[in-house]
Amino acid sequence: MKVLVVGSxxxxxxxxxxxxxxxxxxxxxxAPGNAGTAVSAQNISISDSDIDELLNxxxxxxxxxxxxxxxxxxxxxxVDAFQAAGLLIFGPTQAAAQLEASKAFAKQFMHERxxxxxxxxxxxxxxxxxxxxxxxxxxxxxxxxxxxLAAGKGVVVCDDAAQAEAALREMLLEGAxxxxxxxxxxxxxxxxxxxxxxxxxxxxxxxPLAPARDHKRAYDHDQGPNTGGMGAFAPPPDVDEAxxxxxxxxxxxxxxxxxxxLGTPYVGVLYAGLMLTADGPKxxxxxxxxxxxxxxxxxxxxxxxLVELMLACVNGRLTPDMVKIHPGAxxxxxxxxxxxxxxxxxxxxxxxxxxxxxxxxxxxxGTTSQDDQLVTSGGRVLAVTARGENLExxxxxxxxxxxxxxxxNAHYRKDIGRQA
Length: 420
Ligand code: AMP
Ligand code: GLY
Hints:
Elements: E1 2-7, H1 10-19, E2 27-32, H2 37-40, E3 42-43, H3 51-61, E4 65-68, H4 71-76, H5 78-84, E5 89-90, H6 98-101, H7 103-113, E6 120-123, H8 126-131, H9 133-136, E7 142-146, E8 155-157, H10 161-173, E9 184-188, E10 194-201, E11 206-208, E12 213-214, E13 217-219, E14 223-226, E15 231-234, H11 241-261, E16 268-277, E17 280-287, H12 295-298, H13 306-314, E18 329-336, E19 360-364, E20 367-370, E21 373-376, E22 380-388, H14 391-404
Parallel strand pairs: 1-2, 1-4, 2-3, 4-5
Antiparallel strand pairs: 6-9, 7-8, 7-9, 10-11, 10-16, 12-15, 13-14, 15-18, 16-17, 18-22, 19-22, 20-21
Bound molecules: adenosine monophosphate and glycine (GLY).
């Protein structure tokens, strides 16, 4: 088979790595990819949101399966376009991708179906939003969210009404997030540990992958600004089979059934971002794609052939017994450019990748080749990953990998998987 992977981050490198292990796969193309995907696959210089060009390429090359990493092409309707051309593509349609692309849609959907989530109200008018005293004075504070896609930046967790008003002003009056912030969700602030549960689904049946936890803040002990994710591990020791079963029954299956009932079945990977509250697991957000960096720990723990699973999803014949998970644990530490998530330099030479212990996997994210030298080209540069018989071993191995790798002033957290 010829496979096309759309995207360019650590998630996509991990997808290429796992898809490439399938006996079914001959060639993998990545659009646009990075220096890591260029080693084991063929990079194509097409932007991940240029749907027309991606479709042209897929038709010309007779691609047998396309796999989409990021949310933007999904929200733009890449799946609809490929399906209309008779091509197989793994991911939700534009209508189904609304679960991520419109928080207003997702919240209404969950409220209507009794899917546990934070209490919320949606507004497009600043005066109405600020005037809604109820919304601003929920016990425990509120969270203000841009409804549309804002690359993970459109969420403001507020300690008091003044902060909430400032966030509403920014989004609704000052257009800080453009159209994505012209509609906002104000919701109850929840507390508890977070959990990322990624499930594969064919639109009817949903099967969970290994549960994972990411570290979103830039600095140790969850300090500093939010980032795309500074590391992840799986499975979290506080998450057992019974909890996964509860999440599947109260959240995931009602979501899959509800989307089918709306006439917009959800096919692909559904990422449930959850908070484990004292009242049970609740949805913080849905994503319509694999998580980054969760994918870098979830796929190494997947024993089954990912191509077969994706084909089963696309063809509507997924069964729970098809998904086999390795025992043990996996951890990934993100090495970021100095300054990330604010401004950072590019072009820093990276060394040490050629002399790594065998048990380390490095998924590249913001990398490129310059005159045969591997250099940094983004904020999150590498995801240094290892499996182990338990979490402690996996974490120790991943950090051993980090110690072998060098670029100037590399920034990484020292506490990934360690407070668990
Ligand atoms: P999101 O982009 O929706 O995942 O939000 C980013 C982060 O904001 C989450 O990982 C949580 O840490 C936090 N957050 C979002 N919604 C809530 C909420 N209702 N209560 C508390 N924290 C939240
Ligand atoms: N790790 C968070 C995300 O992928 O959205």
